[in-house]
Design brief:
CATH class of the largest domain: Mainly Alpha
Number of strands: 10
Oligomer: single chain
Shape: globular
CATH superfamily of the largest domain: Homeodomain-like
Number of domains: 4
Mean pLDDT: 82
CATH topology of the largest domain: Arc Repressor Mutant, subunit A
Low-confidence stretches: 167-172, 346-350
Length: 350
């Protein structure tokens, strides 16, 4: 649905699923009632033959339709403006604004603001603020600031508050000083394991798997973590690495393998969405962009996909081009095809 072109089959599927990620991408005109709705409208679905899709509310109104009073599709632009205002407020504030303050800024209730903000960004305002501050810490460390300077310059009132936030859910794994020094002070345990897809490199910190790749060596791992202390996995990591190997052989089965991965708020939103794709199925870059509430960020989704250091466990192999072709894969299309084949229901063990 780029450049004003609407794929009617895809649009109808979004309407049937009441997919909120398509709100703003098009509106659904119901010719039998003379109204137009958001794709996510909770009203009873119309018959397909009575539906026509429009790129905007303005086009629907030009065709003689009026806005649905239930889903208020002409408020989408207002919602987008409210989310932008909240992001600007969070970015310019010295400390994270409270939800009530942000609601007053936009004229929405706190509950509604939280809902539309999470719908468009994949994060609540509070989590977005924490993610932004964590990114500022990383940027400051990369620029040569000390850990203490980076923490306070990012807007934290104390170092303890910074570490507390990391424990609350945006786990950093490696300490912030490791970002500054390319992994210095961090021990990364690794092993190279033979699989049906070829040699698999797996590496982990004491918090979880930080790298899973194919046809790579210790030298490649060193490039990823240039100043980390690299050690063979040994007995302490044998069970974890065996579980990872089993997951590679039967990708998509439920598991509780811990991960130690870091990224920007956007990258982590993409990676979370990748893990939601059912085994054996694929999504396009455009699908992922829409699902995280950023339908125009297709190229950025591709970059986030490529920045994934943990293959299979974060299944970037399930992303294909919009035309259904395989596209690229860091470890070669043959491995990508084999992973998808392994995930097909016909091949999965009963």
């Amino acid at each position: 649905m780029n450049g004003g072109q609407i794929d009617s089959d895809k649009a109808w599927n979004a309407v049937q699923a009441r997919d909120r990620s398509f709100d703003g991408a098009f509106v659904t005109g119901v010719l039998s009632t003379g109204i137009y709705c958001r794709p996510s409208c909770a009203a009873r679905h119309p018959k397909r033959e009575n539906v026509r899709f429009f790129a905007s509310a303005k086009q629907a109104e030009a065709a003689g339709l009026r806005a649905c009073l239930r889903c208020r599709p002409n408020d989408v632009a207002r919602d987008e403006a409210a989310v932008k205002a909240v992001i600007d407020a969070i970015r310019t504030a010295e400390s994270a604004p409270k939800l009530d303050e942000l609601a007053d800024l936009t004229g929405y209730s706190p509950t509604h603001l939280q809902r539309i903000f999470k719908r468009q960004t994949g994060l609540s305002p509070a989590v977005y603020a924490r993610a932004l501050r964590s990114e500022r810490v990383k940027d400051a460390l990369a620029g040569g600031a000390s850990v203490t300077e980076a923490i306070y310059d990012a807007g934290y009132g104390s170092a303890s508050r910074f570490y507390e936030e990391q424990k609350m859910g945006r786990k950093m794994g490696m300490k912030p000083s490791a970002w500054k020094n390319g992994g210095a002070g961090v021990t990364v345990h690794w092993a190279c394991i033979e699989t049906s897809l070829g040699p698999m490199m797996v590496a982990a910190t004491d918090k979880g798997v930080c790298c899973l790749s194919f046809n790579e060596s210790e030298q490649d791992l060193r490039r990823r973590f240039p100043n980390a202390d690299l050690k063979p996995g040994g007995d302490a990591f044998a069970s974890l690495f065996a579980e990872v190997a089993a997951q590679v052989e039967t990708p998509g089965r439920p598991h509780n393998i811990p991960l130690d991965v870091q990224g920007t708020a956007f990258q982590e939103a993409v990676w979370r969405e990748l893990r939601k794709i059912p085994e054996g199925e694929t999504r396009s870059y455009a699908d992922i962009a829409a699902a995280i509430g950023k339908p125009r960020a297709v190229r950025a989704v591709g970059s986030a996909n490529g920045a994934n250091n943990v293959a299979v466990l974060i299944p970037c192999h399930r992303v294909v081009r919009s035309d259904g072709t395989m596209g690229g894969y860091a470890y070669g299309l043959e491995i990508k095809e084999q992973l998808l084949q392994k995930e097909s229901r016909e091949d999965r063990p009963v």
